Amino acid sequence: MTSLPSLYISHGSPMTALQPGLTGQRLVELAALLPKPRAIVMASAHWLSRKPQVGGAAMPETIHDFRGFPAELYALRYPAPGAPDLAVKVAELLARADLSATIDPSRGLDHGAWVPLRLLYPDADIPVVPITIQPELGPAHQYAVGRALASLRDEGILVIGSGSITHNLHDFGAAYSEQRLAPYVQPFIEWIEQRLAVGDIDALLDYRRQAPGAERAHPTDEHLLPLFVALGAAGPNAHAQRIDAGIDLGFLAMDIYRFN
């Protein structure tokens, strides 16, 4: 079986589900290039915990974890099956790496998972196992989580991190737009791309001190941390391919990364 890449997807607003724009186009193009995975392990910026957790539901519910959006968005469902046996295996792989994990038998798919998956695999016929992010433990911990899961790629399992390359919701109302970008966005995008291109893992793990505009690009870590899961799962010497999906609202960079 051909080893699959790992992916990092910027999922943007929940409205991406109704207005997919360039992100939807890029995900459709990406899905056409990939072998169909046997299952998906998904680390979303919207499921957070102090210690690793793994979703073990047989039929994960679609979680509408947002307020104030159009009624049609709440009517959407992503009825992909779960994979309880795979959830057990994921927990075992994490335990072998001294990353003790528990299984949540009822966890569904939050919008960080189902919004991009609905665009990537709209038939919802691929089992999905969600895993948590630990924002208090930082990038190096999430990289270790990814490293622990790297062997899954050789079994036809796609490891995805879902967040956003830049994510500062304080900039809503700041009148940024496609014509007037937040000043930190492009320098941060370019720094991430350059560090990934040369495989500078140490700098990436220390991004909060080294990346330009890091504090504004990410007032809190959780939307960049899934990148490190995907990067770790790609294994050493991985090649990073940036897929430009635009910048929403002038401050949400929608980059997608494919790691081979």
Structural overview:
- With 260 residues, the chain is α/β, with parallel strands linked by helices.
- 33% of the residues lie in helices and 18% in strands.
- The protein has helices at 21-33, 71-74, 84-96, 111-120, 138-148, 185-197, 201-205, 207-210, 214-217, 225-233; strands spanning 6-10, 39-48, 53-55, 102-104, 128-133, 157-163, 240-243, 247-248, 252-253, 256-259.
- Helix 5 (138-148) runs parallel beside helix 10 (225-233).
From the structure above, extract its key features:
single chain; 260 residues; alpha/beta; six-stranded mixed beta sheet; 10 helices
Short description:
33% of the residues lie in helices and 18% in strands.
Topology (SSEs and partners):
Layout: E1 6-10, H1 21-33, E2 39-48, E3 53-55, H2 71-74, H3 84-96, E4 102-104, H4 111-120, E5 128-133, H5 138-148, E6 157-163, H6 185-197, H7 201-205, H8 207-210, H9 214-217, H10 225-233, E7 240-243, E8 247-248, E9 252-253, E10 256-259
Parallel strand pairs: 1-6, 2-5, 2-6, 3-4
Antiparallel strand pairs: 1-10, 7-10, 8-9
